[in-house]
Automatic annotation (TrEMBL):
Catalyzes the base-exchange of a guanine (G) residue with the queuine precursor 7-aminomethyl-7-deazaguanine (PreQ1) at position 34 (anticodon wobble position) in tRNAs with GU(N) anticodons (tRNA-Asp, -Asn, -His and -Tyr). Catalysis occurs through a double-displacement mechanism. The nucleophile active site attacks the C1' of nucleotide 34 to detach the guanine base from the RNA, forming a covalent enzyme-RNA intermediate. The proton acceptor active site deprotonates the incoming PreQ1, allowing a nucleophilic attack on the C1' of the ribose to form the product. Binds 1 zinc ion per subunit. Keywords: Glycosyltransferase, Metal-binding, Queuosine biosynthesis, Transferase, tRNA processing, Zinc. Its cofactor is Zn(2+). Belongs to the queuine tRNA-ribosyltransferase family. Homodimer. Within each dimer, one monomer is responsible for RNA recognition and catalysis, while the other monomer binds to the replacement base PreQ1. This is Queuine tRNA-ribosyltransferase. Substrate binds at D90, S91, G92, G93, F94, D144, Q195, G222. Residues 12-373 form the tRNA-guanine(15) transglycosylase-like domain. GO terms for molecular function: metal ion binding; tRNA-guanosine(34) queuine transglycosylase activity. Its EC number is 2.4.2.29.
Length: 380
């Protein structure tokens, strides 16, 4: 991997990153394809058309079905889903949080009951690395525990210490896997994850600790899981300065356009979130004039596109009235068009952010973008 910061404005930075599966310009939004597909009938050809740089898939879900061994036999995730650009796989660590009722955490790893059929699953650091190696993603995430942001300090302390021990095991395992003859991607990268809830001192201590491990990149996890936006931004202010400036920084699971703009200003490179696809499936679409709810009756006779001047497939060919009709009728095309528009909007916004940093006017771009988006949006 080659990662080079090519422009900065304050703490905001724009970088060029070269990987075995292609180049990435940051800041970047990774479109979330949990089971190797974006929900909403979006194909990899669609992703190319809307200028997606990185696609994200989920280790736990692909392990459950179709099975990572099957994906390996089919040539890895890139060949399986016909995607020739970078892929990041999360580690399964978030499921330690989201499937709290179906798991038990031990030092060796986490015991799950599958959310599909209830069968028992064990995943520890070594298992997560093996699964991600089988998937052959560009970037593998270290296996961690994602505690609720508002958990008690004593629990957070113990959880972060265990996450640190797991990170050492992840690094040792991926180093071994990358040397094996039958490994598909012998250049798989490893990103470590900073945890610590909303306790600044724990976060900073953990950031200093993992920064010494010379990993390929560093993520900030355990945010957008119950804390306020201001608490999130305070943690970023505290933690980012203690992560390596010359390595990519990733804020996991975030977020809204406002979250992204605030985090970019604090030095974040990588983002992912289900918001654009999930909101799109419910008829909520992003525009530079705010978020619209196409189920609203006021769009029943509206012949305008979702957004004038937008280059996405939905806006080039269809009206708000038609898309509203499809949504009301339960037609998949309506959801697909809304998801494509939202992903296009996010990818275009990231391109604008990169340009703004490189031309030295990010602060003004952020001010105008936030004012235009949040002053006039529908009351959803």
């Amino acid at each position: 991997m080659i990662y080079k910061v090519i422009a900065k404005q304050g703490n905001a930075k724009s970088a060029h990153m070269k990987t075995v599966h292609g180049e990435v310009e940051t800041p970047v939004f990774m479109n979330v394809g949990t089971v190797a597909a974006i929900k909403g009938a979006v194909s990899t050809e669609d992703l190319r058309d809307i200028k997606t740089q990185v696609q994200l898939s989920n280790t736990y879900h692909l392990h459950v079905r179709p099975g990572d061994e099957i994906v390996k036999k089919l040539g890895g995730l890139h060949r399986f889903m016909n995607w020739d650009r970078p892929i990041l796989t999360d580690s399964g660590g978030f499921q330690v949080f989201s499937l709290a009722g179906l798991r038990k955490i031990k030092e060796e790893g986490v015991y799950f009951n599958s959310h599909i059929d209830g069968r028992k699953i064990f995943m520890g650091p070594e298992e997560s690395m093996q699964i991600q190696s089988n998937l052959a993603s560009t970037i593998a995430m270290a296996f961690d525990e994602c505690p609720g942001a508002l958990s008690e300090r004593e629990y957070i302390e113990q959880s972060v210490q265990r996450t640190s021990r797991w990170l050492v095991r992840c690094k040792d395992k991926i180093d071994c896997l990358n040397k094996l003859e039958n490994t598909i991607n012998k250049n798989q990268l490893l990103f470590g994850i900073n945890q610590g809830g909303i306790f600044e001192d724990i976060r900073i201590r953990h950031a200093k600790e993992i920064s010494q491990m010379n990993l390929d990149g560093y993520a900030i996890g355990g945010l957008a899981v119950g804390e306020s936006h201001e608490e999130m931004y305070n943690i970023l202010d505290a933690v980012v300065p203690y992560l390596p400036y010359d390595k990519p920084t990733y804020l996991m699971g975030v977020g809204t356009p406002a979250n992204i703009l605030e985090a970019v200003e604090r030095g974040i490179d990588f983002f992912d979130c289900v918001y654009p696809s999930r909101n799109g499936r419910h008829g909520h679409v992003y525009t530079d004039s705010g978020k619209l709810n196409l189920f609203n009756k006021k769009y029943e006779l509206d012949e305008a596109p979702i957004e004038d001047g937008c280059g996405c497939m939905a806006c080039r060919a269809h009206s708000r009235a038609y898309i509203r009709h499809l949504l009301k009728a339960g037609e998949m095309l309506g959801m697909r068009l809304c998801v494509l528009h939202n992903l296009y909007f996010y990818n275009k916004m990231m391109s604008e952010i990169r340009d703004a940093i490189r031309y030295g006017d990010f602060k003004e771009y952020k001010r105008v973008k936030l004012k235009s988006m949040y002053d006039r949006q529908d009351k959803i």
